[in-house]
Amino acid sequence: MGGFDIETEEGRQEALRRMLTIRAFDSEAGDRFADGEIPGFVHLYIGEEAVGVGTCASLEDDDYIASTHRGHGHCIAKGLDPKYMMAELYGRAEGYCNGKGGSMHIADVDAGMLGANGIVGAGPPMATGAALSIDYQDRDQVAVGFLGDGAVAQGQVHEAMNLAATWDLPAIFVIENNHYGEGTPVEKQHNVDNLSDTAQAYDIPGLTVDGMDITAVAEAVGEARARARAGDGPTLIEAETYRYRGHYEGDEEPYRDEDELERWKARDPIDSFKERLIDRGELTVGEFDELESEIEAEIDAAVDYARDAEPPAPHEAYDDMFAETPPEIERFATAARTDGGERIEDSRSTSDRSRSEGGERR
Amino acid sequence: MTAQAERELETETETMTVREAVRQALREELERDEDVYVMGEDVGLFGGVLEVTSGLYDEFGGERVRDTPISEAGFMGAATGAAATGTRPVVELMFSDFAGVSMEQIMNQMAKMRYMFGGKAEMPVTVRTTEGGGMGAASQHSGTIHTWIAHFPGLMAVAPGTAASAKGLTKAAIRSDDPVFVFENKMIYEQEGAVPTDEDFTIPLGEAAIEREGDDVTVVATQRLVGESLQTAESLAEAGVEAEVIDARSLYPLDTETIVESVRKTGRLIVADESPLSYGTHAEIVARVQEEAFFSLDAPIQRVGTPDTHMPFSTPLEQEVLPDGDDVREAIERVT
């Protein structure tokens, strides 16, 4: 098993740490977004921690996950470093994507994290593809595709499940049913009682678990992983959960009331897991408080790191389009590398000139 | 370098059709690299709807020549995920018109992953697809869409006009660590030509080929219109007009240098490409030539392409809108 099998005490401690890290990271990200320090969009995972962490608890370190737009939690669950994550949210060169991805595209392929994704429903085909590579090369891995409840209405999700099922690929699809697809309730978007019922169409196991209970999630994913590795194909798991924040930060949430939020908070995945560990004698309140402070300090340090990190140089905008930069792009890169975009070729066009005269800030 | 000179570098050639050249490229790359596999609708048992992959299933088996469900979004997305995780899929998209069904996976995933992730994702995927009118396949199976792909950042696009370039470009595409689309015009699958037999023969992406030298007018052509332009050039030579015919071969990257050098010599340019005329491949070539060689031009640049219609079914209608060698001739005559 990978870093934190929650069948073990050490693994349970790590699971608690990762859930707390997600909550602290996303609380901080929300605050820094509100301050205007973090640009763009952020979608926070607070409330859903047990799904990502429970899933990754049952994976090996080199297994793959393909994430959603709400991806910070998946990154931390998979073991990414909050420092470089925060640097990415701040658009810094030292971020995971050198500042090119941001919150919605944060990724670390080497760590098996195939990216947050701005397109709803894009994760499952990615996971099916990773599972295809695994199967083709006969590697001892699996690939998990996360999706939200809203994505269950996307065609590509079903095409991915059908392909994975037909080819018996080692994929696991995890629906995080947080009960709202953006601002519309789940029952207004789907006609099935349980979203996992859709598994029947592909003759694969489909089950619905309590997504506020990390143990239930880990157990379901563990079984799905064993099944995938045995060559028996994919599993669809629906984890019922809830997001405490809006769809995105700044969402005024006209679609739900405070009572509903409080009912879910009463089943908080971190509180309940903490209580369980205390009951088992594996944790004291004092140790929990200490762990929480330690993680808060780690996140504060991540913010300090991100604030102080260098932004990318403008010419880096032209890197990484291709393995080998074609002349179409190279000429802009060359211009941007020279101070002030000085003209370096007789053939440089007027469009190049206007760009160097201020087009960089478009 | 002229295509002739390029071929002379190759010690041995064999005459084969464009279809055979693509198939040979696939076979050689499947043999060379175990991480390469072919996937698509009916590519295996059936041998490909236009018979390009015929025989490969028997040679390499169903793991390496994989029949997919009719599910372009699913398998294009899966190919993207597979390419990012260590294998090298070669996807056949049966007709380029079907790109619309999988455009999300192409434009938002395949094209963007490397960049969005700061260069930390490889994307060695090849997409082969067929284009073009001429066989009465009507509007949803005859499109020429390569402009979309060549336009979209993060994708490479090639469009061979000869059997040799079909082989060399297909092999280069498969060996590339970037997503490359190979656009095969379905009307030239039976066109024959000399093809290098060297298993390491590839054509670098971004290099055009001068198929015929001439001093009076440059014709930059693609796909079927390369052969038609060459025939037109031969007949015009009898009337004393020497056309230089360039097979653009690679649409993105585009070999601006070879094209511009030719126009500097001839002072006249015809761009012949089957895609629709407005906002397209022609316009890109024209724009680059005027940026680099405006003062070398002696006459207005002419475009030969499909007027902005879809491909109609009935033969007289289809022939009306399909560009051909006569259209190239008329264009040359307008400016010489």
UniProtKB/TrEMBL annotation, chain B:
Pfam families: Transket_pyr (PF02779), Transketolase_C (PF02780)
Transketolase-like pyrimidine-binding domain location: 16-191
Cofactor: thiamine diphosphate
The organism's taxonomic lineage, starting at the top: Archaea, Methanobacteriati, Methanobacteriota, Stenosarchaea group, Halobacteria
Full protein name: Transketolase
Recorded superkingdom: Archaea
Species in which this protein is naturally found: Natronococcus amylolyticus DSM 10524
SUPFAM superfamilies registered for this protein in UniProt: Thiamin diphosphate-binding fold (THDP-binding), TK C-terminal domain-like
Matching PANTHER family: PYRUVATE DEHYDROGENASE E1 COMPONENT BETA SUBUNIT (PTHR43257), PYRUVATE DEHYDROGENASE E1 COMPONENT SUBUNIT BETA (PTHR43257:SF2)
Molecular-function GO terms, alphabetical: oxidoreductase activity
Entry's transmembrane regions: none
GO biological process, one term: organic acid metabolic process
Signal peptide: none
UniProt xrefs under InterPro entries: THDP-binding, Transketo_C/PFOR_II, Transketolase-like_Pyr-bd, Transketolase_C
Keywords on record: Oxidoreductase, Thiamine pyrophosphate
Residue runs in coiled coils: none
